[in-house]
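REQUEST FORM: STRUCTURE PREDICTION
Request ID: SP-0412
Submitted by: Lab K.M.
Chain count: 1
Length (residues): 410
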Amino acid sequence: MKGIMKYFILKQYNLILIRYGEVWLKSQRVKIRMLNYLMTNIKTMLKRNEIPFHKYQLSKDSSRIFFFFANEQLSNALEVIQKVFGVHSFSPALRTSNKIDNIIEKTLEVAQDVLEKNDTFALRIKRSGTHEYSSLDVARIVGKEIIEHFSDLNLKVNLSSPQKKIFIEIRDDFSYIFTNIYETEWGGLPIEPQKKILVMDVGRLGDLIAGFLLMRRGSKIYPLLFDLNNDNETFNTWLSNWNKILDYIPFNDFKVFKINLTPLFDKIISKLDKKEYICAICRLLRFQIIPQVIESTEDKELKKVRAITDGLSFNNSSFCYDDIDLNSISLNYLFSTYPIFTPVISFSLNDINSIIKKISKNLIKLDYCKYKPQDQKFDKELAQKEFENLNIKETIDDIATFIEEINLNG
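STATUS: Completed
RESULT:
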C-alpha cells in the first residue's frame, strides 16, 4: 500500500515493525553499517518532529528494526518513518512472547477488532529462530482458535484471496502481530553523512529532483543555487522548494548555499560576441566555479564533497536546449575532476511531474533565468574559444568566495 496517509492502528499496538530492502543484499559488514545509519536516521527524524519513543532495537537476525511508542504516538511516527530513505515497508504492531498460548491470546484480541460477520480470513506466518513448532503448526492452531472463538461470525479461511489478513512474525523470543503492511514511496538506501554530493541548482525543479534521487541512494546533499535573477521573490520560492525536502533530511540542520551570478553575467553579456552561446557559457562558468567554491570554503562539510549532480533531462523542459546541456558536460574536464551525476536524464516529463507530486504538492516551478536567449547554439571548439576570450578567470575566482550559507533547520 503506497502513499497511504491514514493508517489502521489498533489500541493494542505499541511498536512499529520496520523492514528494509536492498540493504539486505550487502555484505554483512556493509549491512550492519547501513542499518546503524538507518536506525540513527529514524531516531533523529522522530526527535526533530518531537515524537517520543520508548526504545528501538534490531532483531537478532538483523532483518527487522523495532521502534516502541505509546499508542497515541503511532500515527505521527508512521508519517515520519514513511519518509526515511532505506525503509522499504513498516507495520504498526504489538509484541508478545513466542509461547503459543500468548500468540493465541494476542491474535484473538486483534481478530476481535478486525474480523466481521461472514468474513474470509487468512493467517500469514513468518518465523525466524528455533522453536518447538513450525509455521504451519501456528497457522493451524491459531486459525482453529479464531474459528471456534468467533463461531457466531461464520468465518471462513481463504488462503488465496481473503477479505482480512492477520500477520504473525515469530522472531526468536518474541512474536509480532499486525494486520497491515505499508510500503514506502521511495525505499532506497539510508543516507550516510560521508557520502557528500553538491547539487548544482539554477532553479530548475529538475535540479532539486536530481539531488533528491541521490539522497535516495544514500548521499548527503549540499544544494548550491546559481542565482540568475537576483530577485527576492524568485529566491524565496527556491528556498521554499528546498524547505519541502526537510521532511526527508535525517539531520538536525540542512545547509543550502547561494552565489549571485548576475553581476558576472551582466559583464559577460556586454563582452560576448555570440549571444547564442550564453547557455553553454553559463554551464562552463558553473563547472569552473564549483571547484573554486569547494577549495575556498571554510565549511568543513562542503570541502569533503566528491561529486556533483545536474538536473539535465531529455524533455526540453528547461530554458537551455538539452543537447547544449549534454555537450557542455564534455568540457567539464577543463575545470574539474568531480564526476557529474545526471539521475533525471532518463525520465520523461510525465515521470518528472509524478516525482514532483510525490515529493510535495507544494513545489513551485520558477522563471529562474533572465538571460535566456531566443536562439541557442553549441559547438565544442567555438564554445571553448568564446569562453576563453572572455578572460574572466580572476572574476570567477573572486565570485566563488562570495558564497552565502543558509541553514534550514528542521
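NOTES: The chain has 13 helices and 15 strands.
Reviewed by: T.R.
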